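#struct-help
A.M.: can someone run this one for me? Single chain, 248 residues.
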Amino acid sequence: PDGLHHLVWEVVDNCVDEALAGHATLITTTINPDGSVTIVDDGRGIPTDIHPKTGVSALETVLTVLHAGGKFENESGGSGYKVSGGLHGVGISVVNALSSYVEVTVDRNKQEYFMRFERGVPTGPLEMSKKAAKVVQEENVTQEEPIIEGNKKPVQEEDEDDEEENVMSKRDKLELVKNLQSKRKTGTSVTFLPDTKVFKGEDGKPSITFDPSRLSGRMNEIAYLNAGLVLTITDNRESAKKKAGETE
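D.P.: on it. Structure tokens below:
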């Protein structure tokens, strides 16, 4: 369903806004074995200080109050972003409300912050733990080829016959992603599991099955429109099924 996939776009659009503001270069999207989705960026991280209006952390405010993100007008009439790719969305607070659970991890100010929500309600206060950690994919997880805008190496000489060599290989792309991940010091990770009480399939039965080709198509469009931004999508559902079959 359209609404199901729109949840991903709401989160990804926030990451793209960080890239448009010059603070992010990598957005990774992973479909997890349980049907949840994890989206990670290397932006500045959602602010965690106390919000002056709500009296709770800015992170909790963004996740629970409609249109509370940095792209909307603040008290001074300004906005957190000069350019935004997601102004027509409903915000991550709606993603939170329509999910069985949401887990947010923020790497900011050399600290790691964590908060969990269930059907829009915080399960506890904002937790602060260790220093911000680098995010690197596990080697045993199969990762699809990253979608990259400017998917070619610099051309030294114009040669039509050399076109195949000019295209980045899968290994080059994975190395690029690993390099960006290894440099990550700040950013936001959002994991959410859509609520089966809300989302139904065409047969009317509960369905939270994401279509990876649909997600990949949208990622490709975003990459095309944002030069230098790297996006990846990984579907770990099949690998989990294979691993389960091997252990039976």
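A.M.: thanks! Helices lie at 2-20, 58-64, 92-97, 163-166, 170-182, 212-225, 237-247.
D.P.: also worth noting: The longest strand covers residues 99-108.
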